[in-house]
Amino acid sequence: MSEGIKKVRQQPSQNEDLLFEISSPGKAGYQLPPLDVPSVDPRAALGAGNTRDAIDDFPEVSEVDVIRHFTRLSTWNYAIDLGLYPLGSCTMKYNPRINEAAARVEGMAWPHPYQPDSLSQGAMEVMAELERCLNAITGMDAVTLQPAAGAHGEFAGILLIRAYLESKGNPRKKILIPDSAHGTNPATAHMAGYQVENIASNSRGMVDTEILMKAVDDDVAALMVTNPNTLGVFEEHIADVAKILHDKGALLYMDGANMNALVGVSRPGDFGVDVMHLNLHKTFSTPHGGGGPGSGPVAVKKILEPFLPAPRLKRVGDKWEWNYNLPDAVGRVRAFYGNFGVLVRALAYIMAHGGDGLKRATLDAVLNANYLRKRLEKHYQIAYNEPSMHECVFSDDIQKKLGADTGNIAKRLIDYGFHPYTVSFPLIVHGALMIEPTETESKRELDLFADALISIAEEIEENVEFVKQSPHSTRTSKVDEVGAARKPVVRWKR
Amino acid sequence: MYPDNYRYTKEHEWVHVEAGAGTVGITDHAQHELGDIVYVELPKLGAKVEQGKAFAVVESVKAASDIYAPVTGEVIAINEALTNAPETLNADPHVGGWIAKIKLSVPEEVDRLLSPSDYQAYLGAE
After folding, report:
1. CA gyration radius for chain A?
2. pLDDT band with cut points at 50, 70 and 90 for residue A460
3. What domains can you pick out in chain A, each with its CATH number?
């Protein structure tokens, strides 16, 4: 081979043809036995309007073609199993394999939602035990496991607030939301039929209690707060915030997205929260991203319990039953009982750790974030000089003066082998770099990540254009995000 | 940069009043902060808008932002060209990138808006 290696196909790590492009007429991934009943004309059976002869350009491929195509694509993904995944406010922690073992036990993996309660006692016990654990962790009184994701939990939670206030005679009109909140909060309030009013943060990045005091009146149904907030800062005056609301008959909703900073250390129920959701796919180590699926249980104080979605678990003698006789319930928010397989994984995580282990995980998550902050704050501008909890937020102020922004830094980070941090959020920080390492990471991995970011800061000083052109090592370099958003091509054409 | 005969808000909108109607848009500072704008949700013709209340939405690669009406009144024209060319808001925010025309119902509101020099002083302080 003096001419060198002749390339007949691309190396698997290079680009991948679409299924449309590898299609070959007549190929199929199935083989059916000969028809042993009289054939029927589908047009006659279904009506001509309900049938079609062929789909233009429908890919014709074999099973092995499909398996190889998607397996090759799957190797392009970055995943928590490959390294640090520092997306702030997303809590991308490792998914322990013991969770998977528990979820694959036959009785956990295969129960049918319609099988009789007498055959489902084990599964019902798992849910009851998880409810009990979540109550203990949050300091709340009752839990629904139905919501399938965080925003779904928010929506269920605000419906509970509306139902409670309606029972008092007036659902009220407004929901207050701090300007540091996740975008899902205003969307939730709006969907539940409330007007949204923004509450400006104070100079320390916290809810300004004076502004809040003026904003809370008889029209306010609730405040939706995230604690610690999206700056990674604990709302020091949260008990005062609760009192201001309660004095006017309004409620306090807590978005539990950042609960990884609190588990085993501080309980929302103890600092005045009336209703909150948890993200099992964040705090409780179930898979996050890649379709999850997620799970967003909602925990409430006694006053809201009558409104929780039906059915609810009820202990009768030594058996569990589903109780549908809940006249005040807001109704189902999801078919059956939630994403059961995810609930099993979360309970496995809680039981494998125990109370002390969960507390230790929280302290390690906070320690890791503060370690990164300490290493990085000489090179990047910390956004608010308050103690960091489980995440730290920088701004790109220093780098911006040299011509590179948070987006450029994130792209360059890909060249160093890391998934980027959360870019340009929260919105109240100019050019935010929001970094959440979680307790998963060792000092070695944290150091590799910090070294990468410090090296990028130096590159920006030496050769800003090189950083702005990154990533350099990936299959596709800078993609045209603006063009993709302005003129999206959503259909493949030959 | 900031036309003398326009008035401005602290939320970075401008209004140009002529014959009882105000043409409104976002300022050069606003488009710069938002980055490349990829989508504009225009108000409906005939919609009643209120000073300080959201009446349009612009979306950039970074974020979606409400645009607040600088004046109270009725929408009498919208810049439909922005639907297919949202980049006009970046390229020409003060003229071609106008969003809507509002027939003023409370003309004295305009007096409470910022002059070009006040707006620029505000940008400097921000």
Report:
1. 26
2. very high
3. 19-74 (no CATH), 97-352 (3.40.640.10), 363-484 (3.90.1150.10)
pLDDT at A77: 85
Whether residue A481 lies within 8 A of chain B, CB to CB, comes out as: yes
Residues in chain B within 8 Å Cβ distance of A486: 36, 38-39, 86-87
CB A304 within 8 A of CB A161: yes
Which of B39, B59, B61 is closest, CB to CB, to A481? B61
pLDDT of amino acid A16: 85
| SS3 state of residue B26 | strand
pLDDT: is A312 or A474 the higher one? A312
Domain that residue B80 falls in = 7-106+114-121
Residue A427 has its nearest CB partner, among B36, B38, B63, at: B63
Cβ atoms of A128 and A320 closer than 8 Å: yes
Residue B92 inside a domain? The answer is: yes
User: Do residues A216 and A369 touch, judged by C-beta distance below 8 A?
Assistant: no
Report in angstroms the alpha-carbon separations of A269 from A69, A142, A172, A272, A302: 49, 11, 23, 6, 11
Is the omega angle on the peptide bond into residue A471 within 30 degrees of 0, that is, cis? yes
Write out the two tokens for B50.
């209120």
A138 touches A298 (CB < 8 A): no
Distance CA B64, CA B67 (A): 10
In this predicted structure, the answer to whether residue A5 has a pLDDT above a threshold of 80 is no
Q: Do A144 and A297 meet the contact criterion of CB atoms below 8 Å apart?
A: yes
Is B2 part of a structural domain of the chain? no
> What digits encode the pLDDT tens for the residues A269-315?
999 999 999 999 999 999 997 777 999 999 999 999 999 999 999 99
ipTM: 0.71
A427 neighbourhood in chain B, CB within 8 Å: 63
- Chain A CB contacts of B36 under 8 Å are 481-482, 485-486
Contact criterion met (CB < 8 Å) for A486 and B38: yes
Taking CB atoms and an 8 Å limit, are B63 and A485 in contact across chains?
A: no
Q: Does A480 touch chain B (CB under 8 A)?
A: no
Residue B125 has pLDDT above 90, yes or no: no
**Shortest CA gap A485–chain B (Å):** 6
**Residue A1: is its pLDDT beyond 50?**
no
SS3 A395: strand
Please count the structural domains in chain B. Answer: 1
| pTM for the full predicted model | 0.88
Provide the pLDDT for residue A477.
Answer: 83
Phi, psi of A134 (to 5 degrees): -65, -35
| Residue in the structure block whose two tokens are 């025309």 | B101
Residue B69's CATH number = 2.40.50.100
Per-residue pLDDT averaged across A431-439, rounded? 97
- Look up residue B115 and give its two tokens: 């002059």
Of B118, B40, B113, nearest to B71 by C-alpha is B113
